[in-house]
Write a structure and sequence with these properties.
The structure holds 2 protein chains of 2 kinds. Chain A has 5 helices and 5 strands. By secondary structure, chain A is α+β, with helices and mostly antiparallel strands. Chain A folds into 2 domains: about 70 residues, Ubiquitin-like (UB roll); about 70 residues, [2Fe-2S]-binding domain (DNA polymerase, domain 1, Orthogonal Bundle), CATH 1.10.150. In chain A, α2 packs across α3 and α2 crosses α5. Chain A is globular. In chain A, about 55% of the residues are buried. Chain B is of the alpha+beta class. Classes of the chains: A alpha+beta, B alpha+beta. Chains A and B meet through α2, α3, α4 and α5 of A and α2 and α18 of B.
């Protein structure tokens, strides 16, 4: 066990855990942030996606020791943090408007990937969305709506310019 | 109020028929929607993990738990001897063993349960248990099961007319076969249960299950307690798809067993790879047929053998293979038929319910038959399908039920027109002539899916509606929410009855102490059954309120109408909340239960005939694909769907079900390949080697329309079930791949294609087509 200072949603938390404990379990079991989901434990399904220094990462296979000097953002607060609000507020809204979620379990991860995608790309087309979102699987098959929701936000953003 | 007609005027102002958002949408996008594993994230609870057998068949010689018990976090290790009641969690028939006693039936079968203060310690300890086995050769080949007549349940067959004579007299005869792969559910939320001891000595269970009542019963039987000592709650699942109809039970029962022993809260959550290995899947099938047909492609006789690989126990296989039989004619008329269904045993996990419940495996065979006839007779496949549809006068299925709603021909023709089927087909033929490697294909296929549980007594449901004195409404019902939008639709139905806003109605967790003796949320029946029960409950309260108005204000019942949060009577109106308050002060009960049982359905096993389905849901899809003849890769480039959901209660939710079901079906038929090692261990046990569709697999062009048609049967607001039927729309993809393959032989021969049509399967078919071409060349020489 070791003590780690973690920045989660712009608050610092001190946690006493094993260095190889995946960030997912630190978030869920230690900090009680259960919005981030366990899907496969191998970084292959995307249900556990969070933002680390602005990039979408799989928290189930990322050891806590690797995220000490960076900033973690989770589904609970992503729309309340200034540098992501521009993407996160409309994307959550688009998810509701396009009626994306069915069972909803993969959706926190989908939304976090979508926020990173929009944050890091000014203009988006289907090809880019497919490329960036392929690591987030949805067994309910809501992909068509995910694509539409992301495109609607991307279009809205470019309309503003 | 079972026989209501839709009042279009009322509906216009009401909430039924509107695409209101899913009741959980806001919670789902903020991470606030609670799933089972999100409860009790504390170090104060215990975790259970199974010790799994490392052989597929044999007996246990010795068990050594000493190393596992040395781990300080381990509190106990439980075996079959610790079970006070029954060690069997079979849903219908006995044979699903909770913890192995001596004999091992499949690789990964739970033998013991480790209980520890952390999840990691429980898993680690489970791996430290040493079990020695006396191995016996496992049965893993379905053809061997058939040869040995090794069944988990007796065969059952449908018979219509004199098949042998009809075959003998048929103008043309063809034989065929197909191996159809199973499918892993891969619900994103894996199996998970939490059990908590209660002060009465009972157990409270949170379980991700489609069948809370069955969990209640099985936990009680395992613990040897009366049913009323066990309560099960289920708010939402992170996906079910049939995989939590019976497969949730072992983990709930084991968690309850451990909670009962330790008198602490116990959680069991399976790791993904173990969830793959030790929970049942869609049944793999091996089907064979001989068909007789006219020169014009009309079926005269069908002799079909359906073989479901059931795994080691019966589970739900009897009903699943039955449904495969019931759908082996899909939407077609077989004048004479013999359809035999075998329930084959093997040393694998017990295969189970999965969206479609055997229907897809029967229906795929019917569509293969249609294509076989089309290529043999050199008739356009859609024409063969249209000619063979069930139609007036030729309306009887092989199980004696007569089809009464004939919409399939209209739907197929409409879709063919809307999707430009014929024109695209000729363009594809042109393209293929000049494209030696990439071949395109297109196919249009129908779906006619019977709605009702084939086990008759399951076709019942209950609901509890409570109206509070401020006019807000709380509803419980027997169904479970797994993403299909059931709770949303039920809230809409109840809101419609009271003429209030949808937001005034809250539907949340399913609980066995609120609505008892419920059926699983399965067979697409969630809304049909529970929606009608909720409607009946709401109508009971509505009637009391209207009676009160009638007596108090001396108005006639017929002049009272509830709409837009107000109740109008005579020339007056009153807000719904005020009426409710008045009713309370006048001592009128504002709570009611509702009940519903599907009418008209029966099936006589002895004669293999009856009316097992209340009605049929219809749909059709046209898919276009590209295959690469060098790599075997396939891509679905466009899909157009026309689907019949009756009068839709919520079009956005229904369309979501159709889109998702198609994608899931496409995965089943193209990329999802279950592979078992020779020793019976599942090799494809993680997303690394089991490929379900991702966003890039969605057809680039994907059009969907709802067919404008009310259900002729008296279902809730004349809607139709939607969960399963659209899964089989994906058969159009498989048929389109066959069409692309047939282009290799200028449509003169279509090679066999097993399902799923993986790159390997497609390459095998390409080789078969090329060999056929060579042989034709040789013959010409």
């Amino acid at each position: 066990m070791a003590i780690y200072e973690l920045s989660v949603n712009q608050r610092t938390h001190s946690v006493d855990v094993d260095p190889d404990m995946p960030v997912l379990w630190v978030l869920r079991d230690v900090l009680g942030l259960t919005g981030t989901k366990f899907g496969c434990g191998k970084g292959l399904c995307g249900a556990c996606t969070v933002l680390f220094n602005g990039h979408a990462v799989r928290s189930c296979s990322l050891p806590v020791a690797a995220v000490q000097n960076g900033e973690l953002i989770t589904i609970e607060e992503v729309d309340k943090i200034s540098q992501y609000q521009t993407q996160a507020i409309p994307i959550k809204q688009a998810w509701i408007e396009h009626k994306v979620p069915q069972c909803g379990y993969c959706q926190p991860g989908q939304i976090m990937s979508a926020v990173a995608l929009l944050k890091n790309n000014d203009k988006l087309d289907r090809k880019q969305i497919i490329q960036q979102m392929s690591g987030n699987i949805c067994r309910c098959g809501t992909y068509q709506r995910i694509e539409k929701a992301i495109l609607s936000v991307a279009k809205g953003a470019s309309d503003d310019e | 109020m079972r026989h209501f007609k839709i009042n279009h005027e009322e509906i216009k102002n009401g909430t039924v028929g509107r695409s209101v958002k899913h009741e959980s949408a806001s919670a789902q996008v903020t991470g606030k929607a609670i799933y089972i594993d999100d409860r009790h994230q504390t170090s104060q609870i215990l975790h259970g993990y199974p010790v799994m057998a490392s052989v597929s068949s044999g007996t246990i010689e010795s068990i050594d738990t000493s190393e596992a018990l040395k781990i300080p976090a381990v509190s106990c290790i439980l075996s079959a001897d610790d079970i006070p009641g029954q060690n069997d969690v079979g849903p219908v028939f006995k044979g699903d063993i909770l913890l192995a006693e001596n004999e091992i039936f499949y690789h990964g079968q739970p033998v013991l349960l480790v209980v520890a203060s952390s999840y990691e310690a429980a898993r680690k300890a489970a791996r430290k248990v040493v079990i020695k086995y006396r191995q016996t050769p496992p049965l893993l080949d379905i053809k061997m099961s058939i040869a040995n007549q090794d069944w988990v349940r007796p065969p059952h067959s449908l018979k219509k007319g004199d098949v042998d004579t009809a075959l003998a007299n048929a103008a043309n005869r063809l034989e065929g076969e197909i191996a159809i792969g199973g499918q892993e559910h891969f619900y994103l939320e894996g199996q998970v249960s939490i059990a908590e001891p209660t002060e009465e000595g009972g157990i409270f269970v949170h379980c991700s299950t489609q069948n809370p009542t069955e969990i209640q019963h099985l936990v009680a039987k395992v613990l040897k307690r009366p049913f009323n000592f066990v309560t099960v709650e289920m708010r939402r699942m992170g996906g079910g798809f049939g995989g939590k109809e019976t497969q949730a039970a072992p983990w709930a029962c084991l968690a309850a067993l451990a909670a009962d022993k330790t008198q602490q809260i116990v959680k069991i959550r399976l790791a993904r790879s173990d969830d793959f290995r030790i929970t049942g899947k869609r049944h793999p099938f091996y089907n064979k047929y001989e068909i007789g047909f006219t020169d014009t492609g009309i079926i005269q006789a069908a002799d079909i053998q359906i073989n479901g690989n059931c795994g080691y126990s019966a589970d739900l296989s009897d009903a699943i293979v039955d449904r495969a039989l019931f759908h082996a004619n899909n939407a077609y008329y077989y004048p004479a038929a013999r359809i035999l269904g075998n329930r084959c045993r093997s040393n694998t996990v017990s295969h189970t319910a999965f969206r479609g419940f055997g229907g897809p495996q029967g229906m795929l065979t019917a569509e293969q038959i249609m294509d076989d006839i089309a290529y043999y007779c050199d008739i356009e496949p859609l024409q063969v399908r249209l000619k063979n549809l069930l139609r007036p006068g030729m309306d009887e299925t092989p199980y004696g039920q007569k089809t009464s709603q004939f919409v399939m021909a209209d739907m197929l023709q409409k879709l063919a027109d809307d999707a430009n089927y014929y024109q695209r087909k000729s363009e594809i033929a042109k393209f293929n002539q000049s494209s030696p490697i990439i071949k395109k294909g297109i196919a249009i296929t129908p779906v006619q899916f019977g709605i009702s549980f084939t086990v008759q007594h399951l076709n019942q449901a209950g609901a509890l509606v409570n109206v509070y004195t401020d006019g807000s409404v709380h509803v419980n019902h027997g169904g479970t929410e797994m993403g299909q939008g059931l709770n949303t639709k039920i809230a809409q139905i109840v809101a419609q009855v009271f003429g209030i806003d949808y937001e005034q109605v809250l539907v949340n967790a399913t609980r066995t102490d609120k609505v008892p003796n419920t059926s699983p949320t399965a067979a697409s029946s969630g809304t049909d059954l529970n929606g009608m029960a909720a409607l009946n409950a709401a109508n009971t309260i509505k009637r009391r309120l209207f009676d009160y108005l009638e007596k108090t204000y001396h108005v006639d019942h017929t002049s009272i109408m509830a709409s837009k949060n107000e109740v109008h009577f005579g020339e007056q109106k009153i807000p719904f909340s005020k009426l409710v308050e008045q009713a309370y002060l006048n001592r009128i009960s504002l709570s009611a239960t509702g009940y519903y049982a599907t009418p008209e359905i029966y099936y006589d096993r002895a004669t293999a005939s009856g009316h097992p389905f209340f009605y049929y849901a219809h749909g059709c899809a046209v898919s276009e694909v590209e295959i690469d003849c060098l790599t075997g890769e396939s891509t679905v480039t466009r899909t157009d769907i026309l689907h019949d959901v009756g009068h839709s209660i919520n079009p956005a939710i229904d369309k979501g079900q159709i889109e998702g079901a198609f994608i899931q079906g496409m995965g089943w038929l193209t990329t999802e390949d279950l592979i078992w090692h020779q020793d019976g261990q599942l090799a494809s046990a993680s997303p690394a080697n089991y490929k379900i569709p991702a966003i890039g697999d969605t057809p680039a062009i994907f059009n969907l329309s709802l067919y404008d048609s009310e259900n002729p049967e008296t279902t809730v607001f004349r809607s139709k079930a939607v969960g399963e039927p659209p899964f089989m729309l994906a058969i159009s993809v498989w048929c389109a791949i066959r069409h692309a393959l047939a282009s290799l032989t200028q449509q003169r021969f279509v090679p066999a294609l097993n399902a799923p049509a993986t790159p390997e399967a497609i390459l095998t078919a390409v080789i078969e087509a090329n060999n056929w071409n060579k042989k034709q060349g040789c013959n010409r020489d």
